[in-house]
């Protein structure tokens, strides 16, 4: 059974050529097969997906990313509609990072899953990574954000940079929302 999800996902493009260390699962190429861990009472909110990609500089069309997720344990495949990516012409590799909510695919503890990134011949995917985001992580992050806002006036630059990095790396929300820290 293949389902097409009408919702869209968004993401952020940054220069880079390595999947960040915090990503639970990493693989070379455009696909990654992994088994989810035992959730131990946690609720999976979704997953952050990160790819290392290079643009086909000779092609002028809009760069696009589609994601296909197959759950071998439950026997279904879902495809997520393409998202347009604004990638500057460059010979350098870039990172694209986006979030997909578990509301769409209802992954469970110990499900065996394959995620495939399809750039429809507009980019080459060199590496793929997945970071699992749990509701409990979000609650801790929101609590930390509340503390950060109280401490901002007296915070050092290092603490602000660390808070920005934590928000960027762990937030399952639209990543652009995390760029508002001054």
Automatic annotation (TrEMBL):
Pfam families: C-JID (PF20160)
Lineage: superkingdom: Eukaryota
Matching InterPro entries: C-JID
Keywords: Leucine-rich repeat, Repeat
Repeat keyword on record: yes
Domain C-JID residue range list: 14-137
The protein, known as: C-JID domain-containing protein
The organism of origin for this protein: Populus deltoides
């Amino acid at each position: 059974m293949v389902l097409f999800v009408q919702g869209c996902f968004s993401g952020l493009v940054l220069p880079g050529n390595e999947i960040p260390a915090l990503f639970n699962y990493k693989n070379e190429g455009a696909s990654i097969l992994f088994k989810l861990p035992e959730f131990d009472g946690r609720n999976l909110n979704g997953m952050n997906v990160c790819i290392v990609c290079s643009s086909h500089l000779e092609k002028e069309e809009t760069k696009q990313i589609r994601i296909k997720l197959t759950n071998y344990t439950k026997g279904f495949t879902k495809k997520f509609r393409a998202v347009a990516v604004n990638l500057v012409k460059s010979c350098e590799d870039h990172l694209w990072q986006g979030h997909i909510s578990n509301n769409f695919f209802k992954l469970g503890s110990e499900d065996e899953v394959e995620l495939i990134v399809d750039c429809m011949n507009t980019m080459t995917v060199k590496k793929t990574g997945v970071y699992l985001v749990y509701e409990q992580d979000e609650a801790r992050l929101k609590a930390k954000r509340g503390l950060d806002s109280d401490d901002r006036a007296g915070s050092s630059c290092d603490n602000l940079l660390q808070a920005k990095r934590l928000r960027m790396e762990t937030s399952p929300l639209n990543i652009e929302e995390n760029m508002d820290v001054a």
